[in-house]
Specification:
The protein is α/β, with parallel strands linked by helices. Helices cover 41% and strands 17% of the residues. The chain is built from 15 helices and twelve strands. It has a six-stranded mixed β-sheet with strand order 3-2-1-4-6-5, sandwiched between helices. Strands 9-8-7-10-12-11 form a six-stranded mixed β-sheet, with helices on both faces. α1 crosses α3, α10 crosses α11 and α11 crosses α13. Bound molecules: adenosine-5'-diphosphate (ADP). Adenosine-5'-diphosphate (ADP) binds next to α10 and α12.
């Protein structure tokens, strides 16, 4: 694997995260975050970035490539892909599947092509880890012809993180990935659960879009589709209002007015009733998914918590897995009092091992870029 560093760009709707990382050692040479960008400000952001990297003494002629996080690869892009004009056109065609997430990634790729014309640009997809989800898990039970024509199926998201964490959990346990059945709970601002058998995803909670599944900062997760019909018919919401409600004003924020989990916990401790409800709905949904995925796998060897909330909020881990000893899950309260990790938080004799494993999406991207280039 190349020792030359990879510049990893993660362009969100209003921010640009970057990191220069060596894929072989995982060493990060620098990282940073440019916030509150308008869509036409990416060019400026990348120019600033290049100057910033120079100031920090990063030799940009030594870079192996630029790796880009792209949320939705649709059915075409099922692994890391070298970007050329054809691929860019293909990514444009996928925008309807991810209207909030793919356009900034495409803008980032275009600008990086201009800023670093000599470097390979590689797209790494959040959906790729789920490309071979079993059809029974990937298929929505709607009109099959219509679904086929419009590409409606479950694609899954956060795959870059789930794939990385599955391997990191196996490494931490010193066991081959191929021998493990795992449930991975990625709990950040967005949140998703995945069942992994022998390193391959067999079920995941996000679907056509990142709206399905767990309760998130501003997204409801699972919802009776009849609620949408009701909101349109009786609540008089139009498409844009529904889109805004579902993406930006639901989830923890919609229930309690609080999006950030740190603030939510503070409010719960202060006796705020709506924060308590939000917390309980969040944990209950997670617990349902743990149970479902244990059934999908026929029991698991490992359950792993990752991302901001998963890595840092011990009480969520405790409350989600409390009282599940009949399912072979025994948390050790003292071990659970951990932030970060990797760490084992189950008891030594717990049939299911429970871990906290920090995710590292940038390193995962850099490694996928290096693997493609070699
Ligand atoms: P994303 O990458 O989706 O923005 P993160 O993985 O950074 O998400 O997680 C963000 C969430 O994690 C926020 O709700 C934040 O409150 C929570 N979080 C991060 N660090 C902590 C912490 N030290 N204690 C409690 N919650 C935390």
């Amino acid at each position: 694997m190349t020792a030359r560093p990879v510049l990893v760009l993660n362009a969100g709707s209003s921010s640009l995260k970057y990191q220069v990382v060596r894929p072989d050692t995982g060493r990060s040479l620098t990282r940073g975050h440019v916030e509150r960008l308008g869509s036409d400000e990416f060019a400026e952001a990348l120019r600033t970035l290049s100057e910033e990297l120079a100031r920090e003494g990063i030799d940009q002629t030594s870079l192996a490539a630029v790796g880009h996080r792209v949320v939705h690869g649709g059915q075409q892009y099922v692994s890391a892909t070298l970007v050329d004009d054809d691929v860019l056109a293909g990514l444009e065609e996928l925008v309807p599947l991810a209207p909030l997430h793919n356009p900034p990634a495409i803008a980032g790729i275009r600008q990086a092509m201009a800023a670093y014309p000599g470097l390979p640009q590689v797209a790494v997809f959040d959906t790729a880890f789920f490309a071979d989800l079993p059809p029974a898990a990937a298929t929505y039970a709607i009109d099959a012809e219509l679904a086929h024509r419009l590409g409606i199926r479950r694609y899954g998201m956060h795959g870059i993180s789930h794939e990385y964490v599955a391997q990191a959990a196996a490494d931490f346990l010193g066991r081959p990935l191929g021998n493990l059945d795992q449930v991975i709970l990625h709990l950040g601002n967005g949140a998703s659960a995945t069942a992994v058998r022998a390193g391959r995803s067999v079920e995941t909670s996000m679907g056509l879009t990142p709206l399905e599944g767990l309760v998130m900062g501003t997204r409801a997760g699972d919802l009776d589709p009849g609620v949408l019909l009701h909101l349109m018919r009786v609540g008089d919401l139009d498409l844009d209002e529904l889109d805004d409600l579902l993406n930006h004003r639901s989830g923890l924020l919609g229930l309690s007015g609080i999006q950030d989990f740190r603030d939510l916990v503070t409010a719960v401790d202060g006796g705020d009733a709506s924060a308590r409800t939000a917390y309980d709905v969040y944990c209950h949904r997670l617990r349902k998914y743990v149970g479902a995925y244990l059934a999908v796998l026929g029991g698991a060897d490992v359950i792993t918590f990752t991302a901001g909330t998963g890595e840092n909020v011990a009480r969520v881990r405790r409350d989600v897995l409390a009282g599940l000893d009949r399912l072979g899950i025994n948390i050790d309260p003292e071990r659970n009092d951990v932030r970060g990790g990797p760490a084992r938080i189950s008891t030594d004799d717990s049939p299911v091992t429970v871990l906290v494993v920090p995710t590292d999406e940038e390193l995962s991207i850099a490694r996928q870029v290096a693997a493609l280039l070699s």
